[in-house]
Amino acid sequence: MKPTVADVLALPIVQDGQPRLAGGSDLDRDVRWVHVSDLADLTDLLQGGEVVLTTGTALLADPVGYLEGLDAAGAVAVIAELLDNEVPESVAATADRLDLPVVVLRRAIRFVEVTEEVHRAIVADQYEEVVFSRHVHEVFTGLGLRRAGVQEIVGAAAELIGSAVVLEDLTRQVLAFDGLGASAKDLLRDWERRSRLTPVAHETTVTGPEGWLTAPVGAHRQEWGRLIVPEAGDLDERARMPLERAAQALALNQMIEQNRTELEMRAQNGLVDDLRLGRIPDEAEATARAHALGLQPGLTYAPLTIRIIESTSPDQVLAQGRLTRALDAVRHSVRATRRTALTALRPNGQVDLVLSLPPARNTEQVLTEVCTAIRSSLRRVDGITGVTIGVASDSTRLVDAARGLAESSHVAEAALSLPAGDKAFHRTTDVRLRGLIAVIRSDPRVQAFAETELRGLLEHHARHDDDLLETLRRFIEVGGNKAELAKAMDLARPTVYARLARIERILGLPLDDAESRTSLHAALLILDSRLEPATQKS
Predict the structure, then answer these.
(1) CA count, 13 A, side-chain hemisphere, 168
(2) Alpha-carbon distance 12 to 46, whole Å?
(3) Cβ distance 265 to 355 under 8 Å?
(4) How high is the pLDDT of residue 535?
């Protein structure tokens, strides 16, 4: 490290001059160079950080003007060889006012020896800086070449700095840390609160009430986290270099991982499409390509489709980013359950999966575990209001399982119209009539049927906005049992009988007839299936 004014004064050659501090007390300033001169004006000769060695002629002639000139030029100290000359009182007063150390020597010394020793120390420090800089460069270059992970990068920074290093994201959550032996309990105590007291800066700086050394991680104005040295009190400027290189390595690591992930996602999308459309009929080729993309061999393979219900947003970029985050959440959930799968993102808020199922385990248990993790993870993605998961029959052949995505997609779509529940996933047996309606609901003939069956009641509801439509819905749900309807709606039986009689008059149909109730039930399901699915729960 660079010598300070105190280090210069401690040199034996300076001590031989019997130094005495005449004024000024800041002896911790770094010394950049030593300048020897008796000139009264050194403004054009100094660059800042110099200790000025002088015989004191100019100092004695004009103490105030001389010292103010040196302070303005950036000098950090003055060593004056005054010998037996009296020191004017204005020297101490001015030195104290400027906080510029002025040291008076009572014996003559060889200035050349002072400059040699100080300059030797400065050059040695600069050489150490070069060596350290080269070492830091080699360390992080090596980490980059072998695509080291986040934890390894943070650990390397901690070792180079000699202090604990923490990586946090923008929500103040700790992503990785290396305490260099310190316990996580002590290092991360009350972390979020302490971190929020430390302002975020767009450059490496010491900030906050605890004096943390921080460096932003990510492109300028697009930072996604920051590196922190919580105990930076005793560190010098050298700590900034490895911290900044670590931040650069982490940003590059994320870019590489994102690019790799995007390439992998596109490759998996293409493979799932080829399998789903029957472009790869050969099972050996299909499994070879799938295993090369990370799908582990399984006893069977299950097709799953996830339908994501999003809040409406006119911003297409925001919506696409949400789908990408959703896919990341799905992939993370699958990995968290120690499973592997091929995934494909569809533009309509749908994710297709071909999940590898292990041998000697209950298939339903594994599917429940995976689907529960997926639903839980997707609920935490901003803008996603609901999730349904459809599952088709698993198969020992990958190509057959991929073709089952048509069925799982149909089930997931049909499940959107089902009442909210706690099922982790749905199968064809769960959607039944609703599943059929989900497939044919866009057919004009189907829509015309529903309108014809319910027209009178719908028009009545539009004019009066009463409870007749809901009464019919509840009547069908309880299987046409009037007593159960009265209990379900908490109404007196005469009131229920009167409402049902009005519905029969409006529709011109007998509600006691099973076929009439079946037709009306189908019409209501068609009507419900045309409603915006964003109201469904996950």
Answers:
(1) 21
(2) 26
(3) no
(4) 40
